[in-house]
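User: Can you recover a sequence for this backbone? Please restate the input before giving your answer.

Assistant: Of course. Working from this structure:
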């Protein structure tokens, strides 16, 4: 006679863990990840998105070739334009805590030097326990009155190439987007520095070219209405909430 038995065996629960992204990040990320980083396909004045992408990859444990700082040379912190990674210019900028910092930055064209001198400061940021010198601006999303329903910025300005034509940041820089959280707006996909400013790139230790007045005359550029480079786009963004240094 067969005796019925009750099985006490338990079915194992299989837990599927997310596959870790183990890709090595190099300068090619500005091509391969462009559409992911810029949902509107427009990098104008949105270099904070480049840095945020690379920063998040570093914090997630990705490797870099040759290293984190070098990979951050492949875009211009002012325009957001991808660069060769070898175009560096010498510059001295104010620290947010007072004093000056000398170094170099990646640039796409010489007018970016003037815009950086006028609006960008230096702070620090820690990435996987290592400290870097960060190029920073103030968060442009502090004034709800100029933020459209889609998070873009309702800021009009004259087109430098045709002053009779008005532009606005919503169309000129559509990937500069403000998100509302806990009753306040903050810049979307942005990394904050030690003193809570928006990181747009790194100040590098590498040597770079020194611009002469013949190569870029910032006073003349201002007199001519900021023709060249990003024109007024970055400038209109950066002056919304300028950083006051100590």
């Amino acid at each position: 006679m067969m005796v019925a038995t009750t099985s006490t065996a338990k079915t194992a629960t299989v837990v599927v863990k997310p596959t870790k992204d183990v890709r090595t990040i190099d300068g090619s990320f500005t091509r391969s990840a462009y559409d992911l980083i810029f949902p509107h396909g427009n990098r104008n004045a949105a270099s904070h998105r480049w840095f945020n992408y690379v920063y998040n990859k570093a914090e997630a444990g990705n490797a870099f070739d040759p290293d984190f700082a070098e990979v951050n040379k492949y875009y211009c912190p002012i325009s957001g334009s991808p660069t060769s990674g070898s175009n560096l210019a010498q510059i001295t900028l104010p620290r947010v805590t007072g004093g000056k910092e000398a170094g170099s930055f990646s640039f796409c064209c010489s007018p970016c030097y003037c815009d950086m001198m006028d609006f960008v400061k230096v702070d620090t940021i820690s990435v996987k326990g290592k400290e870097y010198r960060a190029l920073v601006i103030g968060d442009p999303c502090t004034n709800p009155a100029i933020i459209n329903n889609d998070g873009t910025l309702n800021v009009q300005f004259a087109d430098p190439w045709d002053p009779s034509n008005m532009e606005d940041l919503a169309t000129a820089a559509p990937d500069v987007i403000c998100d509302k959280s806990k009753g306040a707006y903050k810049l979307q996909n942005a990394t904050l520095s030690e003193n809570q400013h928006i990181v747009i790139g790194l100040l590098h230790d590498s040597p770079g070219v020194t611009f002469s007045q013949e190569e870029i005359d910032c006073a003349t550029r201002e007199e001519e209405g900021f023709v060249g480079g990003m024109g007024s786009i970055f400038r209109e963004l950066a002056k919304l909430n300028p950083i006051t240094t100590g």
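That completes the design. The chain has one domain: 24-238.
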